């Protein structure tokens, strides 16, 4: 699932809004619960080396909140990294350039949405 597909999926399946809160990073997009305005996803375009890669170039990623007990095991999976620019105990960064299956990404979005719902 690429960045455009991710955005469509979230808008079609969740009661969410999105915005671009940083003028210096106009492509960074935050998905929020419509009622509480809490973030559940942060989409960014980052340098691969910021995620620990030896490769040059940029990659689209999404930060998602997840169960603390799953963070360590998720980071062992291809395309899932320690959270970039978020709390590394509660969030993971997921490659949106095909590194993670659509089903896995959808389940992680659901978990993030649920964990940030405040209910």
UniProtKB/TrEMBL annotation:
InterPro entries: YjbR, YjbR-like_sf, YjbR/MT2646/Rv2570-like
Protein species of origin: Ligilactobacillus ruminis (strain ATCC 27782 / RF3) (Lactobacillus ruminis)
The protein, known as: MmcQ/YjbR family DNA-binding protein
Superkingdom field: Bacteria
Membrane-crossing residue ranges in chain numbering: none
Pfam family, one: YjbR
């Amino acid at each position: 699932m690429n960045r455009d597909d991710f955005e469509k999926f979230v808008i079609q399946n969740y009661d969410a809004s999105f915005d671009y809160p940083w003028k210096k990073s106009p492509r960074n997009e935050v998905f929020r619960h419509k009622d509480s305005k809490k973030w559940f996803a942060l989409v960014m375009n980052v340098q691969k080396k910021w995620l620990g890669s030896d490769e040059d170039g940029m990659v689209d990623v999404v930060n998602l909140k997840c169960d603390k007990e799953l963070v360590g095991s998720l980071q062992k999976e291809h395309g899932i990294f320690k959270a970039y620019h978020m709390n590394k105990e509660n969030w993971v960064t997921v490659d949106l350039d095909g590194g993670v299956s659509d089903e896995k990404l959808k389940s992680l979005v659901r978990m993030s949405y649920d964990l940030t719902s405040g209910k």
